Amino acid sequence: xxxxxxxxxxxxxxxxxxxxxxxxxxxxxxxxxxxxxxxxxxxxxxxxxxxxxxxxxxxxxxxxxxxxxxxxxxxxxxxxxxxxxxxxxxxxxxxxxxxxxxxxxxxxxxxxxxxxxxxxxxxxxxxxxxxxxxxxxxxxxxxxxxxxxxxxxxxxxxxxxxxxxxxxxxxxxxxxxxxxxxxxxxxxxxxxxxxxxxxxxxxxxxxxxxxxxxxxxxxxxxxxxxxxxxxxxxxxxxxxxxxxxxxxxxxxxxxxxxxxxxxxxxxxxxxxxxxxx
Length: 277
Fold this sequence. Notes:
This protein is α+β, with helices and mostly antiparallel strands and about 280 residues long. It has 2 domains: about 5-105; about 125-275, Beta-Lactamase (2-Layer Sandwich), CATH 3.30.450.40. The protein is about 60% helix and about 15% strand. The chain is built from 8 helices and 6 strands, in the order H-H-H-H-H-E-E-E-H-E-H-E-E-H. It has a 6-stranded antiparallel β-sheet. Helix 2 packs antiparallel against helix 4 (about 65-120) and helix 4 runs parallel beside helix 8 (about 250-275). It is elongated, with a radius of gyration of 30 Å.
């Protein structure tokens, strides 16, 4: 028997929203029922005029009474119900965040697949504008201020920007950046190690040179993703946010390495066709 795929369920927004509303409605109903049950127990307990009589009603000394034994069971049941509801109220938001992350990764996978199919069919004269449009579509999906695609120059001392997509207005862009000014990021790109920083404060020790180069731009969050696979000059996508800090999802960042590879292959195909013409 095949197991259900959570990504397949998440790709049906109407069904997912219906199930989400049903889950929360059931939790609201269960919470209201338990609270009403607890209130009814308090209201039905006998009232007396003296403190001594009240203490006798709440005491566990009436072990021989069936009513007291039943009250014990009901109190234990009520306590377990309250603990269960408390756990559900804490668990539901975490589960929603997980499901949201899965939906985002699945949507990005489909977007990359469609983008790759379009890029493969592009003519050489279409690749320049086509890659920019595809890059801008991914930028809008992820909600970042800018995405730049850089490739290592033949001299190996800098990375040259080949494409860029950003919102308007945007911070100043760099046509290239030298590896000497960004040694930590350059090493990560050449090693193929993804970098995702919620803020520049998360940069590790030994990256002071990179930090000093990035801070004047007003950058708040940064993700750097190198292309998957070897061969040819190093390629990387840089996602930058200047307006807010972003908690980068590692699954989303990993998917972007596929897009970087698609861009690199398309650019290499364009150069090869231009050289042969």
